[in-house]
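Quick question, first post here. What does this chain look like in 3D?
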Amino acid sequence: MQVNRHIYSELAGRRRFADAAVAALADAGVTTVFGMPAESLNAFVDALRRDGRIRLVGVRHEGAGALMAATYGKLTGVPGVCVGTAGPGATHLPLGVFEAHADRAPCWRSRARSPSSRSAWTRSRRSTRWR
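> Answer (accepted):
Ran it through. Tokens below.
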């Protein structure tokens, strides 16, 4: 089991990037984020919880969250924000982003990224020997 190294940032009293991102979103007027919490979004979800100005609406599919964010932006005029997990989850976000773009609704999307040392592509590349 790997240790989440970002936990130590909090214990040391340092701000994480996720804290700054959430503060910037809140300062921009964002009130709601739609997404599916997962391991790659732990720091962001924790920053949302600690900040308290933005609520997280959990979804079961990233595509649904993206469409919710697009609709939220259309109906309220406040930017709809959708977040997706690393990997396949990120491929479902463009559906809602294109929906918002077509209707000129404010929408912002973000996807998480796993550290490159944990990705399958990096592991397979390291194990392959080129001659």
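Confidence is low (pLDDT under 50) at residues 118-131.
DSSP finds six helices and four strands in the chain.
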